[in-house]
Amino acid sequence: MREIVQRGLWFEEFEPDVVYRHSPGRTVTEADNVLFTTLTMNPQALHLDEPWSAAQDFGGRLVNSMFTLSTLVGLSVGQLTQGTIVANLGFGAVSFPTPVRHGDTLVAESRLVSKRLSRSRPGQGVVVLEHTGRNQHDEVVAVAERSVMMRCRPAEA
Q1: I need a surface site. Which of 57, 92, 121, 153 has the fewest CB within 10 A?
Q2: Is the pLDDT of residue 12 over 90?
Q3: What is the distance between the terminal CA atoms of the chain, rounded to a whole angstrom?
Q4: Phi and psi for 150 in degrees, rounded to 5?
Q5: Global confidence as pTM
């Protein structure tokens, strides 16, 4: 019997000029925002206090941008890095051009910015990805450049 195990891409499988679209999307709830914000010790009223936030520039609470970033990366895991990542190396530019609100549904896509074999870790390579998140109105809500250390395809694969 043949067995198929879900995994991310090996270093060699990342291709230039390809857009990797990730699904399913994720609808963000008020509970998500409040839980994430309080778990991360962020007392920002913009995420927690509706009357105060209603009187501010955006007219109501906004979803914590770190939740947005985490979800953006998380949406890519099953397709790109599940079981094939060695380590998350860091982030370059991150932007949040449109705020996320309770009830918004986030979808994500990624593209390869660059890749190179590791000079110090045989069998591994550094991949730089650009993740883009959009809401249900197709508005860009987040863009993040992320560097990851990926495994090369094992000989038996």
Answers
A1: 57
A2: yes
A3: 17
A4: -115, 150
A5: 0.94
